[in-house]
């Protein structure tokens, strides 16, 4: 038995000083060298906790009382913060959030990547860290719309969300009333019965709204009444869709979306470029900070107009198109076919003719292009999902001996893991720049510039 388990037991109460915080918003402290996680705690808090769930190397503590507040502790502006699982850090000042996120990046690089002497640039934050999201996926039950509670599938019913635009309150009020007035049944994921599964709200910086109703059915019943209710209650609606999802489980969107009113796409402007958005499109949820993120990438790329750029995990082509004006050629590779079609549409929308987008696995397509077409990149941009890159892809980059690589990450842990591999392949790290795209949450975006060392 671990010696700590003899000291710390379930039900015991302790006073402790918290020294750190996790990305999921749990304060962290130590009792007799045992790590204790405390939901609702902040670094700098002195707290009284009741020990529960003692494990071999850590325990969880239930917060009983805050004896002394951390300097960064604030009263959350959102009245749902204690219940809703959408945000983790609203009880911390925004300046405190930024410091914590920078530390998360540095700690991950050192602890997971073994990178002890890497400087992390000051994080790029928002002037106003509210109302920044352009997309909301609302769950629905018989009592209305909302988001899941922390670590559960229990719905927290809300009348507004401070991360969403002001029109979100109109969406919630209108859709709740419409579902009630038209007596539309609600989907139950346990029985796979019921009709309405959720509501997707997308918007842009112009304030145009796209409303998608997700149903467990083949067609939208009472369509005229639904369209009339949405247009009457929600301002500036440009599109209304029905999304068909008859799969079991709690995934909100199905693959088939049908436009039943208005235009099939809304357009978002990022810098000087326009991007077409449908219900199923992948797009960064914070348009204002996306400009800052992409400007960081463009600055690090330092293109002179003679370079070939491979944009891997390119999604709908946003990064590749943003830097295409400075490159000779951009080749985007993406494994999701619908995203490739969106990328090609976005290239046409912006009249960019030096960017092509290919459907396939990045490592395989990259090797094929190098072999069959004798095209090798001067720069590779990586923007993988949270799970990071496949090791086969990193090895393929090493095989090509690409001079420079820019890695765009939404997960410091997998970023650090992958950077450790890149170093073994002969790359050195030149710059690390965090950008806050998700205020109020524990998520942080990071851009890393690497070069192949001779």
TrEMBL record:
InterPro entries listed in its UniProt record: MeTrfase_TrmA_AS, NA-bd_OB-fold, SAM-dependent_MTases_sf, TRAM_dom, U5_MeTrfase_fam
Q: List the keywords (alphabetical).
A: Methyltransferase, S-adenosyl-L-methionine, Transferase
Gene3D superfamilies, alphabetized: 2.40.50.1070, Nucleic acid-binding proteins (2.40.50.140), Vaccinia Virus protein VP39 (3.40.50.150)
Q: Does the keyword Methyltransferase apply?
A: yes
* Active site positions: 410, 410 (nucleophile)
Record keyword Ribonucleoprotein present: no
One GO biological-process annotation of the entry reads:
rRNA base methylation
List residues of the TRAM domain.
Answer: 7-65
Pfam families in UniProt:
TRAM (PF01938), tRNA_U5-meth_tr (PF05958)
- GO MF term set: rRNA (uridine-C5-)-methyltransferase activity
Tell me the domain of life.
Bacteria
Extract the coiled-coil ranges from the record.
Answer: none
Which residues are listed for S-adenosyl-L-methionine binding in this entry?
284, 313, 334, 383
UniProt xrefs under PROSITE patterns: SAM_MT_RNA_M5U, TRAM, TRMA_1
The family annotation for this protein states:
Belongs to the class I-like SAM-binding methyltransferase superfamily. RNA M5U methyltransferase family.
Q: What is this protein called?
A: RNA methyltransferase
Name the source organism: Acetobacterium bakii
The upper taxonomy is:
Bacteria, Bacillati, Bacillota, Clostridia, Eubacteriales
